[in-house]
């Protein structure tokens, strides 16, 4: 599977007030929309360190200038090189809550499409949970372009970190 780093380019939806040389800018903006129609983002910090036994939020949000329709997303864990799907869902339209299928007993979906939030909680973290978590999304409005962002989880020993 091909993965792209969704967080690499900071961009904002263009406002009409920004248009100076209308013809040229419009052309450029269309280019930008095509290139950056959807973004997924795990926030400013791309990793977190937690103690075993605790619960951790794996954050992910999306944004789109052209709007979403049937936005598909999933979370995957890179377990020793193999991608394991933790959950997946389709958001029918903006503001409509997804019906999330969960494939992992300690994963809870805590996002809300009202806030473009597709974060999950991982409960009772174990040392085996350490690794890379991939938030993946695809907006059919943009053909089959894939977007993803990686969040890394480090698990530390409760006893050692208490010293
Ligand atoms: C965390 O790991 C330590 C050492 O492996 C263990 O003693 C402790 O019980 C664990 N804590 C939890 C909450 O699982
Ligand atoms: C990771 O994969 C390698 C090679 O497939 C295997 O030898 C090893 O036991 C695996 N480790 C774990 C923790 O599953
Ligand atoms: C987490 O561990 C606690 C204590 O062992 C247990 O009661 C709880 O059901 C676990 N939660 C999940 C989501 O596995
Ligand atoms: C996403 O939702 C979770 C759960 O409500 C919240 O803790 C988190 O801060 C939200 N993230 C963002 C970027 O809004
Ligand atoms: C997007 O990901 C899917 C698997 O989730 C894959 O089948 C498809 O080929 C990918 N598309 C592109 C353009 O990378």
Oligomer: single chain
Mind telling me which CATH architecture of the largest domain this is? Sandwich
> Do you know the CATH topology of the largest domain?
Immunoglobulin-like
Which CATH first-tier class of the largest domain would you pick? Mainly Beta
Any idea what the CATH superfamily of the largest domain is called? Answer: Immunoglobulins
- Name the shape in a single word: elongated
Bound compounds, each kind once, are: 2-acetamido-2-deoxy-beta-D-glucopyranose
Residues in helix, %: 10-25%
Supply Rg: 18 Å
Count of separate structural domains: 2
Beta strand count? 11
- Helices and strands, in order, run as HEEEEEEEEEEEH
Describe this structure in words.
With 163 residues, this protein is mainly beta. It folds into two domains: 1-35; 38-156, Immunoglobulin-like. Helix content is 12%, strand content 40%. It is built from two helices and eleven strands, in the order αβββββββββββα. The chain has helices at residues 22-36, 158-162; strands spanning 38-41, 47-51, 56-58, 61-64, 69-79, 82-93, 101-102, 107-109, 120-122, 131-138, 146-156. A hairpin with a 7-residue loop joins strand 6 and strand 7. One 2-acetamido-2-deoxy-beta-D-glucopyranose is lined by residues 1-2, 144-146.
